[in-house]
Amino acid sequence: MPTLHAHCPLCDSKHLDDLYLNVNGFTITRCQACRLVFVKEKLATNELLAYYNQADGEYIYADPENVENLNYYFRKLGIMIEKQRPAGRILDVGCSAGYFLDVMKNWDCYGIEIPSIWAEMASAKYGNHIHIGTLDDSNYPDEYFDVITLQDVFDHLSNPLECLAICKRILKPNGMIVIKVHNIECLYARLAGRNFYAIIPPFHLFYYSKNTLKRALEKSGFSFQTSAFIGHSLFLKTIPYRLAQTNRSGIFFKTYQMLDKIPLGNIKIPKNLHDIITVFGVKQPDTP
Fold first, then answer.
1. What phi and psi, each to the nearest 5 degrees, are found at residue 281?
2. Which DSSP helix (H) or strand (E) runs through 108?
3. 215 contacts 31 by C-beta, under 8 angstroms
4. Nearest to 260 by CA among 102, 81, 65, 87
5. What is the mean predicted confidence (pLDDT) over 11-34?
6. CB 177 within 8 A of CB 171
7. 3-state SS class at 120
8. What pTM did the predictor assign?
9. Residue 42, domain member (yes or no)
10. Considering the domain boundaries, does residue 12 fall inside one?
11. Where does residue 255 rank: exposed (0-12), middle (13-18), buried (19+ CB within 10 A)?
12. Minimal CB count within 10 Å: which of 19, 22, 202, 244?
């Protein structure tokens, strides 16, 4: 039997409500106190890596043909960062093939990615500035980075507060942290319920809103600055791919496979359903 969270990982409340049972064999629960939504079963990092190694991965997102869609968001994020910070040293945690770093032309770029073909692609471009592994087993000096970004990675972590503690240590004073995740409080998520495309345990372990992200940042020694719903661009075929979630035998995935073979599937569609939220925080000095 797996070990279960008896308390909320964010606020330590023991008042938990199970929202959805048996989603890919896992339980999705919500804290009554802070409203954090998370997978009730505890999973260690090595267990998560085993799941990733067994899965086919979200290849549609990291496919080189999809780079321009990814850049639609990355460029907007880069502009927002550069309006608040001069170019310096930036770390992208979960950098995939380094596509976001490619956009940050004037920056000293670093990235972290678990062992994969994408990590190898990033290393080919950025050399030893790419750490192949996790933030936990990295060894960056204290106060090293001006900006740290976690894009589509913070909801994968088994211990998000521990991640924020490391980020705080390696950020310079007044350094910026940027977190991009799915928004569990958006209208789409509320209407879809357990069928919201982002509810795919064990790959996504936590499901955040603006309020829970703000609470996590402030608990970890950051001030919450702002949040944004930055638009995205995606291929038409990505829509049924997301709706398929982890089901590779249903109608949605079969629709994706059909669209993947014809030019219609590669039509680009702008999207902003507020289902993706990006938050910005600033490292605060330690209080005596």
1. -130, 165
2. strand 108-113
3. no
4. 65
5. 96
6. yes
7. helix
8. 0.92
9. no
10. no
11. middle
12. 22
Q: Which two tokens stand for residue 9?
A: 């990982």
Q: Are the C-beta atoms of 212 and 271 separated by less than 8 Å?
A: no
In tens, the pLDDT along 57-94 reads 555 555 667 888 889 999 999 999 999 999 999 999 99
Q: For residue 243, give both structure tokens.
A: 């709706």
Query: Are the C-beta atoms of 91 and 171 separated by less than 8 Å?
Result: no
pLDDT tens-digit readout, 89-137: 999 999 999 999 999 999 999 999 999 889 999 999 999 999 999 999 9
Range of the domain at 131: 57-231+272-283
Burial class (CB in 10 A: 0-12, 13-18, 19+), 270: exposed
- Number of structural domains found in the chain: 1
254 found inside a domain: no
Amino acid letter at 56?
A: D
The least confident of 54-68, 134-148, 228-242 is 54-68
Rounded distance between C-alpha atoms, residue 122 and residue 132, angstroms = 9
Distance, CA of 222 to CA of 284 (rounded, Å): 5
Distance CA 226, CA 280 (A): 5
Domain assignment present for residue 79? The answer is yes
Amino acid at 21: L
The phi, psi pair for 188, rounded to 5°, reads -60, -45
Q: Quick one: tokens of 53?
A: 């190694």
Q: 144: domain CATH number?
A: 3.40.50.150
Which runs of consecutive H residues, i.e. helices, occur in the chain?
Answer: 45-54, 59-62, 67-84, 99-103, 117-126, 160-170, 187-192, 210-219, 238-244, 251-259
CA dihedral 90, 94, 98, 100 (to 10 degrees): -60
Strands 108-113 and 130-132: parallel
